[in-house]
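Hey, can you fold this?
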Amino acid sequence: MAPMLSRRTVLRGCGTAIALPLLEAMMPEADAASSAAESSAAVPASVPLRMAFLYSPNGMHMADWTPAETGSVYKLPPTLEPLKGLQGDFSVLTGLAHRKANANGDGGGDHARAMTTFLTGVQARKTAGADIHAGVSIDQLAARQLGKRTRLPSLEIGADGGGRSGSCDSGYSCAYSSTISWRSETQPVPKETDPELIFERLFENGLPHETEAARARRNSLQKSIIDFALEDAGRLGKELGAGDKRKLDEYLSAVRELERRIERAAKENREGGAKLGMKKPEATPSDFGAHLRLLADLLVLAFQTDSTRVSTLVFANEGSNRSYAAIDVPEGHHDLSHHGNDAEKQAKIQRINRFHVEQFAYFVGKLKAAREGDKTLLDRCMIVYGSGIADGNRHQHEDLPMILAGGGAGTLQPGRHVRFDKGTPATNLYLSLLDRAGVKLPRLGDSTGRLSDI
């Protein structure tokens, strides 16, 4: 019998450390804990439970988002149709609210408050200066405990960058409208937007100053990180059974393909920049959908290799006025969200909303396709997708568009449309998720309790 491998086994070569997915050779101890634990309210540390929070800005056209029926038998409305093949893997949650995103005497600034409040449940201090103040976000609360078990405590990524200075929304600092994750009441966590840098972060070996030199060497030799790890992979392959060898080959092929996609984006940007006489970002695809899918693939990889168990992914900053010409919506997103009940503008907003749901469906589908022992990666995830604004025209922060996907290691009941009492704090949901992750808090932000029917 081949010796049991550690879950922390990595392949090394030229400044890289390639973490591996769960193989059969790593499973005996994990399976024993898993089978006994995955139906309990709190999941033991031996079962890798992941949490991710995905954000879409400017609200939704809610008429095309909210299902008419509740329960497990309901028809997906137009905006959610891209999730049709995954309907048993998520629940639509209606009635949740973020009351601290309302003005509450602070006047304009709903977009800034929406993003800051989304994971904190705390009202942002209205300031355009350095004295920003909000609350600790659920992802960072989870990372304080779950992050002790992984190389990266948490991973914050997104398609838009952002700064901490200047006023971006009615006297609110730009930090508020560009940051969803808060490590402390005064410390927002910046997002990484460049897929190449995220890729390097996932596969760096952790030795100071070596990663940049290793990257330069690989580039000079025109080699992939996989090329430098093949010798170690060959050694490991001799210790694995046929099924694990096949899984290892498939995994390394997927990593190589992801690396090539990032390299193609970098090449296209360099060539495009040269034609325009300017330098473009190294590895950020010019196509927005391709950028979001790369970020999704990197996040799946981070979960699959247990590099982190907590992440946020922001599709675009709150108040974004991005054009969506690729889906025949050349107007700015934020401008369209103030549609004034114009049917043509509402139709275009719905098209943008559906495009975002398509990207979310891609991510959830990838999680479902990834196996982890006798489960899927999605089975051991709790994924929240939504916005801090419902109707963008009214800057409404109740009846928020919220989806909860994944099985939560057997603790969630997906496949339903659940309608909660109007005004139920979204932070009640977050407390319920933290319970499952083994993070016990008396309250979070404006929470009033916990949700039982999720």
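Oh, and this one too while you're at it.
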Amino acid sequence: MKRFLLVEPDFPIPHKSKNHKDFLPIGLLKIASYLRGQGHKVSLVRGASVNLEDLKWPEDIPPNEIWVTSLFTYWASYVREAVQHYKTKFPNAIIKVGGIYASLCPSEEVKEYTGCDEVHQGVLPEVEAYATTHFPAYDLIQDANPHPVDYQVLHASRGCLRKCPFCGTWKIEPEFQAKESIRGEIKRSKVIFYDNNFLMNPHIEDILKELIELKKQGEITWIESQSGLDGRVLLKKPQLAKMLKEARFRYPRIAWDWGYDQSDSIKKQIDILVKAGYKSRDIFVFMLYNHQVSYEELERKRVKCWAWRVQIADCRYRPLDQLYDHYSSYKKSQDATAYYIHPSWTDELVRQFRRNVRRQNICVRHRFRFYSRSLESKQVARDIAGNLRKLKDKNKIIRLLEAEDIDYWFPDQLYLSSES
């Protein structure tokens, strides 16, 4: 029997989001379950300088091995801090680093940068196999975090056959592996699929039928696909949209990563989802910005999404091998020494596009015709705000706004330079 300490570094995730569905350390929870099954003692800590009083064995008995996970490459410094902290505290323990950063960068560089003893790249096949019949160790986070996890994270497949240059999935998981069934793995009524391409699974219809049956039996409340849905698959198999709706998949997300000339295809994908019963305002379109597509073209895409009344999930591009990202939305400006700025973009345009998307999403969600900072902060008299919401004619709205000296921003307008 060995003693394993599993570590999630002190990533810059707000405490209230530690158990958020997008940041759950599911890999560590699977590993914990697997190691327990081998008869080992396992503890999990979340943070580089956390108090170790919650160890599952006395603190004066050191762990034999410490496994540190990693996320984005630009959070590599947090991994290094964790390694150095536990290396000092437990000098005789073997420290291993795995996860996304460890898998995308050369292992020798990871060892040199973090000071760890070993690097694991990719997934652990034996752990993934074990997880199909044994539930991950959710108890390790339930006990230590005030925000309960009432959902489960699941993979119906690993990898992706697409080779998008800005994505690291196909580098970390080069072989696409798909399950034929996931029914036996469903233990909770809320399910988050972490598949990188859920619809690409050749057994997708069988899996959706399983989920639909579980929904009918009252065992499923809702489902989400964290990485979105491959709209190109939907175009070939539109019947999947209805099955997704029947299975209670919520907030479907598709991707519009490239140019405006894809708009016809994106509209067809949205139409398929709407025909299946989804409201357009509950559909999200991923948009990569600060990348090869110019700000001007992104603006045209944004306005098109407004015409369709769908929301935008804006994704700021960072190079896969960059080990830092100090972008701050609270600062008025930063330069390329703080974070990556594409040659065809500027810090000003990055911030402008984010503002535009945020304002537009508010308009879509609440069915507003325009955005106003004053209205959002409730600085406008209630009767005037009510009149503005009732008006349908844009010119009348503008006249009232200007008469009351209220700031405004219309999503149907292209903002081709830094404005408002």
